[in-house]
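Hello forum,

I keep getting stuck at the same step: I have a sequence, I want structure tokens, and every attempt I make locally crashes halfway through. Rather than fight my setup again tonight, could one of you with a working pipeline run this one for me? It's a single chain of 280 residues.
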Amino acid sequence: MHQPQGDSIWGNINTCIEIALNVYAIYAEKGEGIMIPKEEAEKMLSSEGLAKGKEKDGWICYDGDSKDIPMYEILGKRLEACKKIMEETQHQMKEMELKGKVHLSDYFGELLPPVVSEEKTAVQKTADQLQKVRNGIYFMESEGETALAIHEKVAEYFLSVYGVEFGRKQGDYLLYDLDTSAIPLNELKSVFPEVESLILSTESMNATIHNKFQTYEQLYNRLVPEQLKIPAVDGPISLFLRQQLEKESNKEYKEVFHEETNHLEQEDDFGEQVEYGFEP
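Reply #2:
Ran it on my machine without issues. Output:
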């Protein structure tokens, strides 16, 4: 399909960008809008959507308030297709789990753990700096911080494209810091019981996503059925994992210890100013 060029209802075309298959954003000398070949528009749009456009030389053109209509309808159809695929996939997976046909460690094969340090042997890495959750999912120490590590094979099969985008690639794994781990934990909790058991507070996990990752929340909620949507809650954030609770507890302990140390130092300073005995 050729792109529109030359003249349009907005005058001579300066710039043409294909924003979806056979859908073009036009920037012309007297205005801008959307152009779709008529035969393609008839396939992808409703009769109401078609009626909102203006026909010219085999193209359906949209401008002003109408230029969002074609993309709205196209995205709506994609969303419905995604929902059907996800629901069917979840149904099939549930049936396979119930029938005992899926043993995911065997399905993937035993996945190698993430590499922590080149200076340590694989045994030392696993013992000292890796905590295995299940095959292909670990907690690990990375650059002084704890990260949730998910093998790319697990991510490919069980994470959404949005969930993958928030991981930092390192070798064969995607790394998520403790706050960002709310995203893959949310998506994997219904797949792996070992992952679900990590979540100490679903309310805190949802609140963390709602407050810190709103773009992900909006995109994810468009893909899933109503019962799987992330609710808009304002609970305590970053307190859904044991590691976070321990970190918060250590922080509070250090603050109390620091205050008590300062208090003792002030008492010592005061004591040094006191003179004992009698003047001659």
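The radius of gyration is 29 Å. If your local run keeps crashing, start a new thread with the error log.
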